[in-house]
Task: structure prediction
Amino acid sequence: MSVPAEVRKGLRRGSLSAALLLASGSANLCAALSEPLREIKQDESAAEPAGPDQLSPHARRAYAELLKLRPGNGRAFAQRGTDAGALLMLEGAAFTELVVTQDPKRYEAAIEAQDAALARLDQQPRSALRDYARAEIRLHQAAAQVMFGHELQGAWSLRQAYLQVQQNYKRWPDFLPTQKTLGLCQFLIGSVPEGYRWFLNLLGLPGNTQAGLQHLRTAAQRPHDFQIEARLLLALIRQTYYGADEEAAALLSRLTREQPDNLLFSYLGMSVQKKLHHTAQALSYYRSRPTGPTYLPAAYLHHMAADLLLYQGQYAASEQANQLFLSEYRGVHYRKDAWFKLYLAHWLGGDQAQAERCRQQIAKGGDTSVEEDRYAQRFVDDQLPLNRYLTRARLQIDGGYYRPALATLGDFQATAATPLRDRLEEPYRRARAYHGLGRLDSARLYYGRCITASGTAPYYFAPQSALQLGYLCQEAGQKAQAKAYFEKALSYGKHEYKTSTDAKAKVALASLQ
Result:
């Protein structure tokens, strides 16, 4: 038995870690997102009293440090108290280190710290904050267990955490931090494709994306100790599943201006701009990020930078960034993807010998639980040479360089000997370029051509084309056509990005109701 991929991906983020690693258009939410984030200063935190269900001053300061990815500082503040909030932050320091570094050597100590914190919390009087801390720590434990391959234990911990969150909401319905976590759980579980519903039903875990969004909106709109986490989660979900790109970009831009010493905000700003295909802006976040001995070494930042430099054709710089990632990173995920990107940098740069060495590294084995690593492994397994023009065009499109991509695609000439994969990829890449340029009629034309030519071919081009056509129809108010395209996206068999494509299509279908 294994945890469904979409839940697994969400659990790698967890609740705090979703903010570490992951809006309604209403006036209320827009106002909430436009309010300045008030950073807690060390001197004033000691003077502000805390209510019975609020973080103590020291716990509040610890939380601010954890969000900056400075867990050592956070631990020092958390150790000054023994209340529920302090225990949550003390566990959060170890969990943050585990999630960001992905170091398996930290796993056992992190699990032991979680068990110890839960035991100490059980000895404290019941309160909304105590019960919230218990559920958060159990959710962190589920994330850690799944992240490091202990999926049965992780599934059981997830069930315990979710049941605890539901009980907390019934007992403390006005406690906003619980609404944040309940909303996250409901949305992640509700977005799981239908093929995995049996697993969630077996665990007794109901999900509902719309209810989850509403709880997150409520937690994002009203002040509480964890409001910024709710805002971030809501913005990232809205971007990932609903195309609310500018909302997330604006939020992260404001947060990084207000807290330039916050590494988490720099990371998320870089990630959001990368998804928006704004390469220069994403690299700006990377180059201006805060550094120093108190920050965790966030190696994944180098991997993202390597992608961005690859989009720009800066092959030597991309290679250097990925080598830095591989040397600093302690986890098992994204290693194949890094070697694949190194292959591309050498291959496109004309160094065939080095490219072949990188291809051999992909083939050596390793984890393939994330889609990027599965794509890299399929490249090796298929033994089908890449087309230089299509590959370069894909990178240009990912970087937001749409006109150069169309020029590159103009050099592609299909013949009778051209593999089916390449003949399907060409119209898909044209559609993506036209879509990026806002030439929607041309995008629809080429998405349609890709779907027609694909049949049941096991590639992601047609499923993604159907998904994008669904979005275009949805934006045009054509609900029936949008529904048909989202259902078509779900209908395709196994392909490289089926997990994420199916999850997005399912969420989109739910939003049409």
Observations:
- Residues 311 and 395 are 5 Å apart (CA to CA).
- The first helix runs from residue 5 to 13.
- The radius of gyration is 23 Å.
